[in-house]
Amino acid sequence: MRLLNAAAISEDLFLSAEGTIGQIKSIHHDYINILTSDGIVTLVRSGMDHIPFGIEVDLVDGWLNFELKQQMVRYFADAIVIGENLAVRGLQTCSRFSCQVSYDSLTGAVDFLPRLRRLQQLCNDADKGGGILAYVGQYDAKMFCSRSKIPSLIDARIPQAVKMLIAGILENKGSLINEGICGLLGVGPGSTPSGDDFLLGFLSGIIHVQPENCQQAAKKMAQHLVVNAPQLTTFMSVEYIKYGVKGLYHQRVGEMIRSFGAGAEQEMIDKVRQLMQLGHFSGVDFLVGFVYGGFTALSAGTPPKRKESVNENS
C-alpha cells in the first residue's frame, strides 16, 4: 500500500466519523472525488487550487497513475484508506486553509457600476459561448436586471427563469425566487452545469455588491438552492452549492470576489481572467451570474418608478 501525507485540509470540511464507508465517484489527473452519506471529499494533488471540501495531498504526479477505479473508501481517525492500494494520513495534524471570502471592503470608495460593466465585457469577449451565454444571450445585464420588462423574452425559457429570479430578489418574494432557481438548476452539461454556476455567481453578486439591499432575499435564495439542488442537479454541484451559500468558494472565485470589492482594477482583471480558465465554462458562467446578481443588487437600491395617475396632471 502506498502511503501519502495530507499537506493541508479545509477548515470548513466536515469529515465523516471513523468507520464510515465511502466510494470513489470520479478520478481525474489532479483530484479524486469521494462520496459518503455526509457529502463529497475531494483529494487534490499538491499545488492545485483549494476548494472548501478539499484535502491537499503531497503528490507530485497525477492520481491516474494509481489503479484505483471505483474502489471502497474507509475513514479512520487520522487517515482515509482507498481499497488496498492507497492511504492518505495526517488529517488531524496537517495545516488548515480557509475558503471564506474576507477583505477590507472599499464599498463607497469603489464604484461598482463600471466594474460590473467591465466584468460583463470580459465575459462576452471570452469566446465561451457554449456555457450560460448560449442560453441567456448577451443582453445588457444592467437593463436586464432593472425593474422593467423585456418583451423579447416571451419564448425564451432560460432568460425567463433569470428574469423570474431577478423579480423575486427585487420584490423579496420566495415563490418567484424558487421558480427562477428551479428553472436554472441542472441546465447544461458537466459536473457543475452552467445554470448552477450562474446561480452561485448570482447569489455571490447580491451578497457582495451592496449586500444591505438584498439581505433578506439572499437568505431566501440560499435556502431554496440548498433544498432544490439534490433533486435537480449533480452530486458535485450540490456540494459546491452547500458550501457556497455559506460564503465558501473555490480559491479562484474567492480571489476574484476579494479583488472586485477591495482591489485595484488591474488586479481584479487579472483574477477574473484566471477564474475564466476554470473548467470548460464554469468560471465564465459564475462570472456572468455574479454580474447579473451585482446589477440586481444595485437595482434593488433604486426605488421603483412611481406610476403616474391618468388624472395626476389634470
TrEMBL record:
Pfam families associated with the record: AllH
UniProt-recorded name of the protein: DUF2877 domain-containing protein
